[in-house]
Amino acid sequence: MEGGGEAAGRCGEADSACEALRLLQIDPGDPAEWRAGGAVPCSRNVLRKQKHWEKVIMAKKRKRTQERERRKARQAEGKGTAEQHSKRVLKAIMKERLLEAKESGPRLCVDLSMADHMTKKETSRLAAQIRRLYGANRRAKKPFWLCLTEFVMGSSIYEECFRMNDGFSNYLMDTTQESYLDLFPLDTIVYLTPDSENVLEDIDPKKVYILGGLVDESIHKKLTLQRARDQSLQTARLPIREYMVKTINTKNYHSETLAINQVFDVLSTYYETQNWPAALKAGVSSGKGYVLPGAVN
Questions:
Q1: Which own/partner contact pairs does 74-79 have at CB distance under 8 Å and 24+ positions apart?
Q2: What is the distance between the alpha carbons of residues 258 and 279, in angstroms, rounded to a whole number?
Q3: Distant-in-sequence, close-in-space partners of 266: CB < 8 Å, separation ≥ 6
Q4: CA–CA separation, 29 vs 31, rounded Å?
Q5: Cα–Cα distance between 141 and 115 in angstroms, integer?
Q6: Which pLDDT band holds residue 80 (cuts at 50, 70, 90)?
Q7: pTM
Q8: Which residues does residue 148 pair with via DSSP β-bridges, in sequence order?
Q9: Is the four-CA dihedral 53, 57, 60, 62 of positive or negative sign?
Q10: 51, 53, 16: which is closest to 35 by C-alpha?
Q11: What are phi and psi of 203, to 5 degrees?
């Protein structure tokens, strides 16, 4: 029995040595010869390599374990940051920024006095643009304080804003049936219109900027410009011609008339970056027939 146990032990030792040699990419020869009673070729050199290989394997296992732990730690940290900036916290930050804009400006008013110039479809589109404008302003690092003027209860635009915009009554902005003329000094008002001869060069927090509440489809030539002139107001246009170039298109279409939310995207980006090319790129789509010089094919 002792002879059988000794042979079995020698057999197991041969198998272990054989596997170690394979891992070390050393030809172990025929293990059957070892089991037949031959000596196991476990020289000091082979044993040293075997121990070294075992250490390498253990080191790789530890490294994989450590990497898994680091991933878990990063995920936990990310989760903690997300929890730290929860919706409630972000909402509080946005509210604080908006209230600061209310105190220190700049102000942006949407003039809704021209609602009777729009069709029902255009009125709906304008309500959607107001929603997008408000959402962009709410997310801005340096927001404007918004105001809807001549926002008459029961009017088409009034009804559409409440119908299309969930939570409209909770928007952090002013809404009034009054005209901006009754709210602000004339020398602080700048009416933004694409037909103006004056180029808007900068945004002054002490100024009140007015956008005409007309949608893209409503091409009432120089309507906003005439309204501003009748009221003896300063006017300005975005510097599209100064920083952008016309592109060739099949319809030969070029327009500087933007939706109010697109105008806001330009103003907001410029107010944050002080960079007109970046601002115009943010708000003027290529469909208008204008691009930055570097974007011309």
A1: none
A2: 13
A3: 238, 258, 279, 280, 282, 283, 284
A4: 6
A5: 31
A6: low
A7: 0.69
A8: 110, 175
A9: negative
A10: 16
A11: -110, 120
**Range with the largest mean pLDDT of 22-31, 60-69, 72-81, 253-262:** 253-262
Q: Which helix (H) or strand (E) holds 216?
A: none
Tokens (6 digits) for 111: 């003039």
User: Does the pLDDT of residue 257 top 70, yes or no?
Assistant: yes
Kindly report the CA angle at 147 between 143 and 153, in degrees rounded to 5? 150
Residue 53 token pair: 């290989």
Pull the structure tokens for residue 296. Answer: 């011309």
Residue with tokens 């602000």: 184
Name the pLDDT band for 28 (thresholds 50, 70, 90).
low
Tell me which amino acid residue 280 is. Answer: L
Q: At what angle do helices 120-139 and 87-104 cross, to 10 degrees?
A: 100
Rg (CA), the chain: 37
> How would you class 132 by CB atoms within 10 Å of its CB: exposed for 0-12, middle for 13-18, buried for 19 or more?
middle
pLDDT at residue 168 in the model = 94
